[in-house]
Amino acid sequence: MKQITQTAPTKEEAINVALKKLEVSREDVSITVVEEGKKGFLGFGAKPAVVEVTVLIKEEPSKEVIIEEHVKESITEKTFPDESSLKEDMKEMIESSETPSNEEAVAETIQYIKTIAKEMEIEDLVITEKREGKFIYLHLNSEKAALLIGKRGQTLNALEKLSQLVANKFSQSFILIKLDVGNYRERRQESLEQLAERMADKAVRTGQPVEFEPMSSSERKIIHNALSSRVDIETYSVGTEPNRYLVIESIK
């Protein structure tokens, strides 16, 4: 783990110098302000700022990303097959009427979710399915929707990840499973976007960095995107999963 303690007249200068020395961007580090620093008066009583900058361990790419890249590579390799390959493919198509299908993968995933729901004593679960290309959207309905969502969507996010693993086991081509309960995803996004604006305004008003509670990468991305057009603040993530959190800082 790379770490550096840097001293400079101001906190920002110290951070920038440390980033240059470490040859990394701000999003790749954890920053601890050891000493804020003081300007002093007429050169007397001035104190330099001291910061401790630690390079974060890079997150391993998710299984979904790895699979997607593998599929892209496979498609690229087979974009221009030779004539003999084409003939073989045609022969196989004629000899067999079977074509790759993800029906089993979807069915197994739905059954898995229902099994988990029963263990949570949810007996009225209804699952509706919608397909858009590689995306399989499964909408869950129940009188006990709150149990499926969990605190800040943690249960729903975990169930979605597990469902993706089940789908990968049975799918014959790349698919992505997306779960929602009572339009929770849409409502959560709207809530995060509104919160982002309020916290950004607070950062500008107070001149102090505003830290969010730890949240998933997808939710941090929503906040990043919601504030991407603002020129008076910057956003960056700090820490490591699952405790990685987002910070909004005013640009002076």
From TrEMBL:
It is found in: Cytoplasm. Its main location: cytoplasm. Keywords: Cell shape, Cell wall biogenesis/degradation, Chaperone, Cytoplasm, RNA-binding. It holds the Pfam family R3H. InterPro entries: Jag_KH, Jag_N_dom_sf, KH_dom-like_a/b, KhpB, KhpB_N, R3H_dom, R3H_dom_sf, R3H_KhpB. Coiled coil: none annotated. It comes from the Bacteria. SMART domains: Jag_N, R3H. Residues 186-252 form the R3H domain. Transmembrane segments: none annotated. PANTHER family: PROTEIN JAG, RNA-BINDING PROTEIN KHPB. Belongs to the KhpB RNA-binding protein family. A probable RNA chaperone. Forms a complex with KhpA which binds to cellular RNA and controls its expression. Plays a role in peptidoglycan (PG) homeostasis and cell length regulation. Forms a complex with KhpA. Has an N-terminal Jag-N domain and 2 RNA-binding domains (KH and R3H). This is RNA-binding protein KhpB. It comes from Psychrobacillus faecigallinarum.
